[in-house]
Amino acid sequence: NLGSRPQQSSGINAEYGYEPHQRNAGIIEGRFMEYCQVRKPGTSVDNPEYYTPADFAIGSTIEIFSRKFKIVDCDLYVLKYLEANASKYPAATIESIRAIHADKL
Q1: By CB neighbour count within 10 A (0-12 exposed, 13-18 middle, 19+ buried), where does 78 fall?
Q2: What phi, psi does 54 have (nearest 5°)?
Q3: Cα separation of 88 and 54, whole Å?
Q4: What is the tens place of the pLDDT at every residue in 37-46?
């Protein structure tokens, strides 16, 4: 599970990761990443490019520390936050989230 929260004061998008418990999966559950900026793969340390909310559209795949994550869902709080701050976020990202919550609106 991934979480993402925009940092109000700095405009920085921070992510965190949590591995849910899966019986006999051989994966330790718990947080594997704290809130932090995450550099996109293939960008240099001298000129980093970080993930932004535009990268978290439903259906997109992101890579964090050599692990790939497909964005498949989010909660209504995320949609309401993005809609309230629509000028800061790509319309395509907001629409992708709105589409999965159409039945709840």
Answers
A1: buried
A2: -60, -25
A3: 10
A4: 888 999 999 9
Q: How far apart are CA 29 and CA 58, in angstroms?
A: 24
The residue type of 68 is K
What count of Cα atoms within 13 Å lies in the side-chain half-sphere of residue 22?
Answer: 8
Tens digits of residue pLDDT in 11-33: 444 455 555 556 666 655 556 66
Asked whether the beta carbons of 18 and 30 are under 8 A apart, the reply is yes
d(CA 5, CA 30): 19
Q: What is the pTM of this model?
A: 0.64
C-alpha 20/C-alpha 72 separation (Å) is 16
Contact 53, 93 (CB under 8 A): yes
Structure tokens belonging to residue 88: 């800061």
